[in-house]
UniProtKB/TrEMBL annotation:
Domain of life of the organism encoding this protein: Eukaryota
Protein name: Uncharacterized protein
InterPro entries: RNaseH_sf (IPR036397)
Organism: Araneus ventricosus (Orbweaver spider)
GO molecular function: nucleic acid binding
Amino acid sequence: MGPLIRLETTLRGTNMNIIEPIWVALQCSVQKRSPPPGTLLDLRTVLQDSWCGKPPGYRQTLVYTMPRRVAALLCTRVDPKRY
């Protein structure tokens, strides 16, 4: 099995991407495994264990921070340039 590939997003995109912090946490769990998962089933098990091991409020906190993230993006928004 090859390395995991993560698509890069722009800085602006990561502020709105509620999945990014979850992905980073799951990715760290996979990378800490020794030995690393050798099959897709092993990978699935590691991801499920990590997901279930998160505190109950983890995902809810990400949802609650969205209004603040959106407000911050709106404050820094740059209007398109006219040519």
